[in-house]
């Protein structure tokens, strides 16, 4: 940065010859400045207000005063003035402590050639910070609102200065790593110490590559908190450089994706791909075999594929024809990675007619059966709202308004009296959709607690629980209150999740968030109904392995009739229940199914119970094929 006005420098120094040397060095560096030298604490305090310096240079050790004392006076007075230590000797450890306490830089007196550029950098840094603060203050009324919005988006931010080796972390970043809010200054080494040992080399390589090429980077990795908790994170980093193309620091954002990672692991380990589709009904799913040939897909995948690329997906086609990347080599490489056990992720944007840009996150998972990869699962998640939120986060002066407007949850901020002081667009839109003609009765200016109290008086138990939860957050009995409740309309069944959290450090307000969880509830009910139907059927139902004939699933009706426990039955095969058959005769029986000559075989035989007694059965036997996986399904009538 080029400084255009004459700088006023307050120089704390008691050795006249050193003061002259520094003055000469600044002139040599062509720094236009006015220097006032002081050598006592009283003079220093006096000239802070009278001289109004642009920057302070301080020797560390004066007879009765040092740079640490000077820095403390500066911050106690609330003055934001660049502060550089210029001293003969100082340990690296103490210098690092001073930087953490607020000093901008330190220069040894035998290296004064660095001083002009250090002064320019410090002033540039402070001016930039001041400019950003003015812009943010003009758009956001308080720092707590910014932090609260960042917490709602579950995104932490940080900035690392290479010159000092110190990074400043946001409250949400500290929360993700398990730190207390006051510890917002962290060293690069501290950050590295939290990275999972298996991920350190990868993360440092990504960071160093970005630094050496002045390019952006994003990656998934793990951290281990001090309490031993492992968290999965998604980080995006950007490199800051000077006019010469030299990197001066890093900044970026961090998202805690631990819960999403758990869901991915559940999907990977699931033996029933249909169940995974039901559990993730809001996402698009495509299931392919190990050759990339599509075997099945859900309606979300079908609709999104048609809208995004204008082609209708169909079974038997290659998945490469419907992925966002058209390059055959890219798709082939991704599938090869998944078949080797990796999980591939990437984001892609489509431009839809009349809708604009739609962002999707693609995850390609291996599908395991009995510990072996038998297929490939392609998941597409609409992340348009998340991308909008992230873009607004990068532009901090528009962050608060933009992120709240883009969230799908209905969000409101109320004060301790219950008055609604702020809402997002989704809150007002929900009210309009549900027949509210005068927004003032439910939006800004109305009283949320009054509405709940009236509903409670009418016998509404949800309103009563809501009032109790809001009060518990205001009283600091709990940090967060959660309530899942039904909210059915005349035309549809709906469920919502209410969340009440503190409004940052402002104890007089809380944030209410109503999230529509109808799809999850309906999927859960459908899945539970299907499982209950099979389990409670009066018919005996068996599923056994194509190769080993070992039982995979036996319903409750069969277990009760046979007298075996669930663990006992899984050590048996159909031959253990059918004394009339040998291994040879049973294999001969199922030849028409194996050769695809028949879809079903019906035969009569006897079943043998655990106590040795026999009973006659009529068995309907089928061979069920899903991808490369084959199982026998037997229903006893």
Can you walk me through this structure?
This protein has 637 residues and is of the alpha+beta class. The chain contains 24 helices and 28 strands. The protein has a 6-stranded antiparallel beta sheet, with helices on both faces. The chain has a 5-stranded parallel beta sheet with strand order 2-1-3-6-7, with helices on both faces. Strands 15-14-18-17-16 form a 5-stranded antiparallel beta sheet, with helices on both faces. Strand 1, helix 1 and strand 2 (33-38) form a beta-alpha-beta unit. Helix 5 (115-139) runs parallel beside helix 15 (396-406), helix 6 (143-153) crosses helix 15 and helix 14 packs antiparallel against helix 15. The chain is elongated. The model has no long low-confidence stretch (mean pLDDT 85).
Rg measurement, Å: 33 Å
Structural shape: elongated
Mean pLDDT: 85
Q: How much helix is in the residues?
A: 25-40%
| First-to-last CA distance | 85 Å
Poorly predicted ranges (pLDDT <50, ≥5 residues)?
none
Query: Widest sheet: strand order?
Result: 10-9-8-13-12-11
Oligomer: single chain
What is the beta-strand fraction? 25-35%
Structural class: alpha+beta
What's the β-strand tally?
28
Number of helices: 24
Query: Strand count, sense and closure of the main sheet?
Result: 6 strands, antiparallel
